[in-house]
């Protein structure tokens, strides 16, 4: 049985490539031939990324930004594209539009919308019909595996078209419980909750994948996707309180000037290791939070300004809402160590739910 999956694999960050790998692994466990459609949003193409990143800048500021971007993107290619090339099966053709997919649709028994924020129209700069499998033949089986809208609901303007597109699906699973409600409110009832693909794999899978420890000392790890000085100041004081070294995963060269000893765009396996061996993780990232919990690491979560519902959903589900930092003077937020027995049982139950979904749709 061949499954073609479309997801946000080409967004060069750790969460995107790790959820892609995890999705492939889950389908392979069923003996499926899995291939990911090498689809790239227009704004994700490098030529457009450069343009948008320097939009409205004067020539001096634009040149300064490009001086940071060029080596950053070169490293991204090596780390993220290299990881996918080595570990994930992609279509030979790269698609950049729905029209290309309709003209040369890859053949499959099942078409699958994968995980991450595939149905977040704000994140995707509009309603991306490709992520709704519009190109897939009418008579083909269509499913969604742990899809996300990144918010509590669809925007009003997109609901009529989304309803039409989702009505073609045979089965839908959403990453957040709030998104299940959003889909049902559209009148689509063949929907259930399945947690992120990275959580569908047990802790031992990721520990086996991780490199040996990157840092020998006790350390607090920062993985920060959104600029926030209060976050930075808190991390410095928090690390001092716990007598730990402060380490930072830098996803761009310019982040090396921020607090914490920089680890510049580590290999994906090193990223997993950095979380697995940290004493504490401070993050505004959903996937860093998910990995910390799955790997039984102490985490402090700072919500970003947008798309925080995915973070609140996982903290609520794991009884970890007390680790959502709202007061940057709460240096004692992680003084009490976490009893991970409830969290581990929750993830076991979620893995069973994910297995039940795949048992049904792949039967």
TrEMBL record:
<dbReference type="Pfam" id="PF04230">
    <property type="entry name" value="PS_pyruv_trans"/>
</dbReference>
<feature type="domain" description="Polysaccharide pyruvyl transferase">
    <location>
        <begin position="13"/>
        <end position="303"/>
    </location>
</feature>
<dbReference type="GO" id="GO:0016740">
    <property type="term" value="F:transferase activity"/>
</dbReference>
<keyword id="KW-0808">Transferase</keyword>
<dbReference type="InterPro" id="IPR007345">
    <property type="entry name" value="Polysacch_pyruvyl_Trfase"/>
</dbReference>
<protein>
    <submittedName>
        <fullName>Polysaccharide pyruvyl transferase</fullName>
    </submittedName>
</protein>
């Amino acid at each position: 049985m061949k499954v073609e999956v479309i997801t946000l694999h080409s967004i060069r960050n750790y969460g995107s490539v790790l959820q892609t790998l995890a999705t492939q692994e889950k389908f392979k466990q069923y003996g499926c031939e899995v291939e990911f459609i090498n689809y790239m949003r227009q704004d994700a193409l490098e030529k457009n990324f450069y343009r948008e990143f320097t939009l409205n800048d004067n020539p001096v500021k634009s040149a300064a930004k490009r001086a940071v971007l060029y080596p950053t993107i070169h490293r991204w290619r090596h780390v993220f594209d290299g990881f996918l090339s080595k570990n994930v099966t992609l279509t030979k053709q790269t698609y950049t539009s729905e029209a290309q997919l309709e003209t040369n649709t890859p053949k499959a028994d099942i078409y699958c919308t994968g995980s991450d924020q595939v149905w977040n129209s704000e994140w995707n700069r509009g309603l991306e019909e490709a992520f709704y499998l519009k190109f897939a033949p009418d008579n083909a089986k269509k499913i969604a595996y742990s899809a996300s809208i990144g918010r509590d609901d669809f925007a009003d303007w997109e609901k009529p078209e989304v309803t039409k597109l989702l009505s073609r699906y045979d089965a839908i699973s959403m990453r957040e419980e709030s998104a299940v409600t959003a889909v049902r409110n559209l009148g689509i009832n063949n929907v259930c909750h399945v947690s992120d693909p990275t959580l569908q794999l047990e802790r031992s899978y990721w520990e086996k994948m991780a490199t040996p420890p990157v840092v020998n000392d006790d350390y607090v790890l920062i993985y920060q996707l959104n600029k926030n000085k209060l976050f930075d100041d808190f991390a410095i004081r928090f690390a001092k309180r716990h007598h730990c070294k402060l380490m930072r995963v830098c996803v761009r060269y310019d982040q090396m000037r921020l607090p914490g000893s920089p680890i510049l765009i580590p290999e994906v396996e090193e990223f997993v290791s950095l979380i697995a061996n940290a004493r504490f993780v401070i993050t505004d990232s959903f996937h860093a939070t998910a990995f910390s919990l799955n790997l039984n690491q102490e985490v402090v979560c700072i919500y970003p300004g947008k798309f925080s519902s995915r973070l609140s959903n996982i903290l609520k589900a794991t009884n970890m809402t007390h680790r959502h930092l709202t007061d940057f003077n709460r240096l004692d937020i992680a003084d009490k160590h976490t009893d991970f027995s409830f969290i581990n049982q929750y993830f076991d139950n979620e893995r069973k739910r994910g297995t039940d979904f795949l048992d049904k749709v792949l039967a």
